[in-house]
UniProtKB/TrEMBL annotation:
The keyword Nucleotide-binding applies. ATP binds at G233, V234, A235, G236, S237, G238, K239, T240. This is RNA polymerase recycling motor HelD. InterPro entries: DNA_helicase_UvrD/REP, HelD_bacillota, P-loop_NTPase, UvrD-like_ATP-bd, UvrD-like_helicase_C. Residues 212-613 form the UvrD-like helicase ATP-binding domain. It comes from Aquibacillus rhizosphaerae. It comes from the Bacteria. Keywords: ATP-binding, Coiled coil, Helicase, Hydrolase, Nucleotide-binding. The keyword Coiled coil applies. Residues 19-46 form a coiled coil. The gene is helD. It holds the Pfam family UvrD-helicase.
Length: 785
């Protein structure tokens, strides 16, 4: 037996020993959880028997409550333990299949013994809880594995820095408790393993990258210092993967004080939520909260206004033409800016003195409190108080006024009519109330009077209730009309030093038209909500400690400023790629990833692209400014193909042929990517009779394997085995922002990229050296050159 075989056997023996320990732990836990389950069922069944219920005397009631509380706590404690145990069982079962993926042999400076550190998705102690059989990948010592090749190395613990030497760095592929592969690695974490992971088919769910995290990704994952961490990473560089690993890391590192409830991820679309949903559970952690910016804003804006989605805005932007279109595009860009925010801020300050509009409060058609009265009251309050504080005082005053009106209303005629409409349960309620008052006696005159009093009170109170609720929700402030005065009056705009876009007058008219019709364009949604909060208060969210923003290049400076106000004490991680900025505002404004961002921040740049094969990355980097900074990962594949055709029928033909070829090659997710939804729908209706194909729209919440049609902007963040660009012609992709859209579309491909151009190919393709793709031309008579 040679040295290698012996080593393999030794390693397998160790795996067997660890798996044996895992099995022991599992069997003990299964026994315990079985007992606990029975106990929980038992407590639930006998809940009332174990509680002393006695409601005779006030003291007894208190005692009953205490007994109930104790029993409920007892039950929930058991249920919690049950939950924890089943999580432990899940983790152990995963470990049983694949206990670890890495090992380093480390000798600490000043010591002579070598520690073998085995790294897996979770820690495991030996039988006596003395030694670690497996270290969690997030443990301080595990960072050695990700950060250093063999040789000198160091890692930080909470209060110390430990240095020493790595003498071995090894990777394993273990499945079914059996070692399938084993490599000793040098500089980076095994090109070998990464090659094989990346060569697999695309998945409908993102995978954890824990076994192959690269050093620069590890810097993102383990960053603990930065309040604001900005990651600029090229397409496919693992930004989203690193973000999710970072969530898992933080949950581990701060497990005493941080839970998944304290972390929120803003993702680009609902589809993305399901795409990334499995990564954390695979690592034994719960998913953080997830939302999209649209959902977040829309929920807060309530349902009085219809809000355009960012995708509707994108469709408009990509399809539109004409005068109104030019105005709207300028509006999109201007309203994204901090210049515009400053104008809104100034407008807000001016409202401290005058100008807020209120809504009349009416009851049964009668005016109870006029908007003028409210205005008078509001502006008579101490002007050193900010607007939201004064609004609260006004609300209190309105509620007390309403109470006064409510009392007067009880004696009105309409109340008697309404009393007749009351049903039995209302009478019963009043009856009980009287009994409680201890004054009820069937035959006294007084009690009947009192009963009527209570009934009147009830009728009026029921009618006033919705009004009071509206006051508590501050509906008396006429946000919409106050906001409109920003556009309809000139006092601010005429000030010096105000930077306005050339089409400002047209933008004003257009905006007023939209808002009067209760429609908020996407570019107005954030300013409007920001303005609303200026009047009603920002209600800072302090339960969220970490905010992650993926695809951060698509957030405008105004949107980011808004999020900062909402999450003032949260740490933020922004991840994105300037080359994938596709919203109109990015044309004029710096994106959040820009070096010039004002906020203090730490920046990490990822330049290596892992998703696509080397030929695809070589192709895509050639038409991007700064493309020379993009480094492909060394994975071979076919050159991208450009098929230039003369008419639409041939396009269809070619798409179908490419689909068939890709399916024969074994590719499981194939996307036909179009520029817009409009185009996607047309393509879908043309193809659906010939192949089994799905159309993805912004309502799609999960994505399945197979063949699909999708607009480029919805494919953000996800990946496919093969991508077919439906029309890569110059007519489609020519403008500057379309360069980014085209880049985003092409970089979704892992293994194959096929472009069809109806007519002249896009200028961006022409910028790529010819040897980097295969170019075919098909004439109407189907002759290929
Ligand atoms: N260290 C790694 N080990 C294994 N796979 C990796 C690693 N880093 C990235 N990948 C893979 O590369 C692909 C791209 O990763 P990811 O989607 O996180 O990149 P991204 O930077 O968010 O991309 P984009 O900006 O284009 O959406 C995924 O398939 C991911 O699993």
């Amino acid at each position: 037996m040679n040295e290698k075989d012996k080593e393999w056997i030794d390693e397998q023996n160790r795996v067997n020993k660890v798996v044996h320990e895992i099995k022991n732990k599992l069997s003990k836990l299964n026994q315990k959880i079985g007992d606990l389950k029975e106990r929980v069922i038992d407590i639930r069944k006998n809940f009332w028997e174990d509680v002393t219920v006695n409601l005779d005397e006030p003291d007894d009631v208190i005692e009953t409550q205490a007994s109930l509380k104790q029993q409920a706590e007892f039950l929930s404690e058991r249920e919690r333990s049950h939950g924890q145990m089943s999580e432990q069982i899940n983790t152990l079962e995963r470990l049983e299949d694949s206990p670890y993926f890495g090992r380093i042999d480390f000798t600490e400076t000043g010591y002579s013994d070598v520690d073998s550190i085995y790294i897996g998705i979770s820690s495991l102690m030996d039988e006596n809880d003395d030694d670690f059989l497996i270290y969690d990948w997030r443990a301080p010592i595990s960072s050695l594995y990700y950060d250093y090749p063999p040789g000198e190395a160091k890692y930080s613990t909470v209060d110390d820095e430990i240095s020493g030497e790595i003498t071995l760095k090894r990777q394993y592929i273990i499945r079914n408790s059996t070692i399938k592969g084993m490599f000793d690695t040098g500089l980076t974490i095994g090109d070998h393993l990464l090659q094989s992971v990346l060569g697999n088919n695309a998945n409908t769910k993102m995978k954890s990258i824990v076994a192959t995290i690269q050093r620069e990704q590890n810097q993102i994952i383990r960053n603990e210092k930065s309040e604001l961490l900005i990651v600029q990473g090229v397409a496919g560089s693992g930004k989203t993967s690193a973000a999710l690993q970072r969530v898992a890391y933080l949950l581990y590192r701060y497990r005493e004080v941080l839970s998944s409830e304290n972390i929120v991820l803003f993702s680009p679309n609902p589809l993305f939520n399901s795409y990334v949903a499995k990564v954390l559970p695979e690592l034994g952690e719960e998913n953080m909260k997830q939302t999209t910016l649209f959902n977040y804003l829309d929920t807060q804006l309530g349902n009085r206004l219809t809000v355009e989605t960012p995708f509707e805005q994108m469709e408009y932007y990509l399809n539109g033409t004409g005068e109104n279109y030019e105005t709207r595009v300028q509006s999109m860009s201007y309203k994204a800016s901090l210049d515009f925010k400053q104008l809104i801020d100034e407008f807000g300050f001016s409202l401290e003195q005058d100008g807020i509009k209120f809504r009349n409060i009416r009851f049964r058609g009668d005016l109870l409190i006029s908007n003028q009265q409210m205005k008078q009251y509001f502006y008579s309050l101490d002007r050193s108080l900010n607007i939201p504080l004064r609004m609260e005082s006004l609300a209190k005053w309105l509620l007390s006024e309403l109470n006064r009106f409510e009392k007067l209303e009880r004696n009105k005629e309409w109340v008697v009519e309404e009393m007749e409409l009351l049903d039995k349960s209302d009478y019963l309620e009043v009856h009980n109330e009287l009994q409680e008052e201890n004054r009820f006696s069937e035959d006294t005159f007084d009690d009947h009077v009192r009963e009527e009093e209570l009934l009147r009170k009830k009728v009026v109170a029921d009618k006033f209730k919705p009004l009071k609720q509206k006051i508590k929700r501050m509906y008396f402030v006429d946000i919409k009309n106050t906001y409109l005065t920003f556009y309809t009056t000139d006092h601010l705009i005429n000030k010096k030093n105000v930077k306005l876009p050339t089409r400002w007058e047209l933008i004003r008219t257009q905006t007023v038209d939209y808002i009067r019709n209760n429609y908020l364009t996407w570019e107005d949604a954030t300013p409007y909500l920001y303005f609303q909060k200026m009047l009603l208060g920002f209600n800072a969210n302090r339960t969220i400690e970490h905010v992650f923003i993926d695809e951060a290049q698509d957030y405008s400076p105004f949107q980011f400023a808004y999020l900062k106000r909402i999450f003032p004490s949260s740490r933020m991680t922004l991840l994105g790629d300037m080359n994938q900025a596709i919203y109109a505002h990015a044309l004029y404004e710096e994106t959040l990833l820009s070096e010039n961002i004002q906020e203090k921040h730490e920046r990490i740049t990822l330049v290596r692209s892992y998703r696509s094969t080397q030929p695809i990355v070589e192709f895509t980097k050639s038409f991007m400014p700064n493309g020379d900074l993009i480094e492909p990962f060394n994975r071979d594949g076919n050159k991208p193909v450009l098929m230039e055709v003369e008419n639409r029928d041939i396009v269809n033909d070619k798409v179908l042929r490419a689909i068939e070829d890709f399916q024969t090659m074994g590719h499981q997710t194939i996307a036909v990517i179009c520029k817009t939804m409009h185009e996607s729908k047309m393509v879908y209706s043309r193809l659906k009779h010939s192949v089994d194909i799905k159309l993805m729209d912004e309502e799609t919440h999960t994505f399945q394997q197979g063949l699909l049609v999708i607009p480029a902007y919805l494919a953000k963040g996800i990946e496919f085995d093969a991508v077919i660009i439906h029309n890569a012609s110059d007519a489609e992709y020519h403008k500057e922002l379309e360069r980014n859209l085209f880049y985003t579309a092409c970089t979704r491909a892992m293994h194959e990229l096929y472009m069809i151009s109806l007519g002249e190919p896009s200028i961006f393709i022409k910028q790529v050296p010819k040897e980097k793709y295969a170019h075919f031309k098909v004439h109407a008579i189907q002759k290929e050159q």
